[in-house]
Amino acid sequence: MQKMIKNQIKHKIFSRQTTFQFLRAYYIITPVFLLIELLWGLDFRVPFFLTSPLVRYGYYALCLAGGVVCYFRPKTTAFIAFFESIVNVSLVFISYGVAYFDAMLAVAEGDSVPKIFTPKGVLSFAIPATICVIGFYHCQDIVIRKIKQKI
After folding, report:
1. I need a labelling partner for 143 at 20 to 30 A (CA). Which of 28, 79, 104, 107 fits?
2. Domain positions in the chain
3. pLDDT in tens, 93-126
4. At CB < 8 A and 24+ separation, what contacts does 71-80 make?
């Protein structure tokens, strides 16, 4: 009985429909994340280092545009979430890799070690990374199946 209840809860929480509704809402509330970043300096939407404000706000605009498309065309949610996850993870690896190598160069030149992984930075990484994993794993089979149908 207990196992059956756990399976039902798991199915309800992680159902495809629930996940897609969550992802659409996450994209639509992007302006809220931007406001939080501007007011309090907490970054819950962009888990990588973007020093250029133009590029950063452009990324926010693309995420919001993806949310609007997902809202009006729900069938696109899987594709948008899948490809946004790939872009996001790629940028995370590149930006943290660059920051790590910059820190190693600073140490090699005798400078102090810059703080890369602060508690605020880890939080800024953890929330979007979790969303990326959810988006990627819940959407990959749909995207792959649609691509195979086109081939």
Report:
1. 28
2. 2-150
3. 787 788 788 888 888 888 877 776 777 777 777 8
4. 71/24, 71/28, 74/20, 74/24, 77/20, 77/23, 77/24, 77/139, 78/20, 78/138, 78/139, 78/142, 78/143, 79/139, 79/142, 79/143, 79/146, 80/27
